[in-house]
Amino acid sequence: MPAAVSLRLHAMQKTLIIIGAAIIVAGLLWPYLTRLPLGRLPGDIIIAKPHLKIYIPITTMILVSVVISIIMWLLKK
């Protein structure tokens, strides 16, 4: 197996392990994470009608994106 393929496989394995660990941590912290006000921030759009409910979490997604970007930036250092 060429060295470049081996390096890509190693990187993929490492990525999958990190994603799996993050899912396990999120699962363990879920009771505490549900208490956060995410999804109910100013700027999140909720349209509620008798037979229709549309939810667009704009502010929440921007906040989550910024946090993930900072974490990824710190991990690259």
Written overview of the protein:
It is built from 2 helices and 2 strands. The model has no long low-confidence stretch (mean pLDDT 86). Strand 1 (45-49) and strand 2 (52-56) form a beta hairpin. It folds into 2 domains: 1-35; 38-77. Strands 1-2 form a two-stranded antiparallel ribbon. The protein is α+β, with helices and mostly antiparallel strands and 77 residues long.
Tally of distinct domains: 2
Helical segment tally?
A: 2
Structural class, from helix and strand content? alpha+beta
Strand content: 5-15%
Order of helices and strands: HEEH
**DSSP, total strands:** 2
- State mean pLDDT (0 to 100 scale): 86
What portion of residues is helical? 55-70%
Q: Could you say which overall geometry the principal axes of the C-alpha atoms support? A: elongated
Biggest sheet character? 2 strands, antiparallel
**Cα-to-Cα separation, first versus last residue:** 30 Å
List the strand order in the largest sheet: 1-2
Poorly predicted segments: none
The radius of gyration over CA amounts to 18 Å
Give the gist of this structure.
This protein is α+β, with helices and mostly antiparallel strands and 77 residues long.
